[in-house]
Give the backbone structure.
Amino acid sequence: MDKGYRLVHCQRLFSSRHGSQYFEVQAPSQDGEGPEIVPVDGAAAWARVGEQMAKAWADIEKRAQTTIQEGERDEVNPWLERTQWLPYLVGMERPDLLACIEEPVAEPDARQEQQAEPVEAAIWAAMDGLARFSQASIIDRIGVFIRLEAIRTEMHQTRFQPLQPYMDKNAIVKHTRPWQQMLMFFARTQKEHGWKSPKYRFTRRQREAWEVLIEQAKRSIEGDEEDEAEDMDEEREELDEEMMDDIDEAIEVAEEEPGQGEGPEPKKLSKIQKACLEFCIALLNHRITRREYDSPLVCALAVLGVKEDGWKGPEQYPPILSAVIKIARFMVVQKGLEMSGPEEDSGDETDDDLDDSAYESGPSQRRRPKGCLQLVQKMMDRFMVRGSHSPMQWMLDLRTYGLKIHYNTTTRGHVEWTNGDELLYKELHFSMAQFRGMVHGLASESRRLLTEELMFSSKAAPVPAVPWESIRDNPTDERPGWNFLKDHRTNMPVNGERWLFERVGESASIRSRFMKPGTQSGVDRQAIERYMDRVVEFREKLAVLMHITGGQPARGPELLSVRHSNTVQGGHRNQTCYQSGNSVRTD
């Protein structure tokens, strides 16, 4: 029988404390020439010792960078003591942990040297679709009462700000990634693997839900949900065509059919998305009775705290927890909708005792089904608030602790002044003269982009000058749609609403850029898209100039919400004209 071990030669440099482990060294020569000649001369022997020590120390440092090791007792880190990541992940290889949460590919890619993982890729896509669907349900299918329930963090708490979807619908892709990474951790550790992985254990309900998810993922690969995928592709194509249909409507050439204003939404979750929802709810619905790392969800969250060169601290990890918590609330609401049944049956009377109690029918009285509000309330009280001893309580408490550390710790200084007018910011080094030159260059490029590429100015046909001295405004006028251009005292040299369209029509060379004979609308849609991309580029440059030169820099949401006209929803505008100039208010 073959031996299950091999003989090696070892040494160690220190007898105790950090770096005291044994390491393998080269074995003595076994050839016929006899033992290896060891120099006895003082200088040669000392040089040999130095080479061995340098090699051994290099191995120790390399192992310390890739393997999670216990620190010294005097290395105080309150954040790691609170998270308990180090005791749970000690001995694990950081590259392996980071690789197990990477995005999978359905087909092999030789350029990235990544193996195909069709099952994992199906689960990754299912989680993305589930998050998108759940956010759409928050917007379209529930009211404020359910959203107020879903935002609670305490058992008996009155909240006044309901659960809100993400401002940008595409932002949910970024915030769903932590959930996708945790599912990849489970998928790659549940199958056979050749690397040392953290230990965890599913409950019976979690195990059953996981097996169903894997089964549905395999079926989706085999094509059982091929028809659903085709329907989703058709919906995406219709959504992509909406923008160009709106252009046809704007130029009054093409006629849209009634009801085409919004793209169709999927009516129900696919089978794999339902299985993904059930597994995520099973992870959340876990009462911790001894150690928090008895929960698989907490174990997966620990892997998300690993970096290539250390740990994610109080500055980086709380945003990850916030994304996980918010997507979890979306899924709880979606679970309530799935359990409550058809929308038309969700209403109920507020008083169960409208009939005379003297004529009670007793046990034969039929129980009314619970609605979405009651189901969401029950799930929130059971495993989504503090006091439930669930993974959600661990996340809420850890996020609060991390934010407290973040706000009570002095922020690292990245700005340093040298030689009077030279600025050092992280890895950037420039003088104020260079900075002013950048601002002037940005202003010149923005002016050129506006006049030449967006307004088609030329020496023969210059852009009309704006009479800034004669512009008047009435800041007290709050009518929707009002702006300074509608003031009767403002006299513009041209009709601004039609000037650009007529400018394009008067020039055959400019007009030919946007025309495409033989189409229904007669317009080259790709040319219009390229023009609108240039508009977006100009607005980006203008926003940067406003941020730099506008005095006190505004925050992102304030700067991006500047309006020159009153609106019904936003109210009064925050851009007005005063003494031959424009003023912008950000608040």
Q: What stands out?
A: Confidence is low (pLDDT under 50) at residues 246-266, 350-361. The radius of gyration is 33 Å. Strands lie at 9-11, 23-25, 306-307, 310-311, 415-418, 422-425, 428-431, 575-577, 582-584.
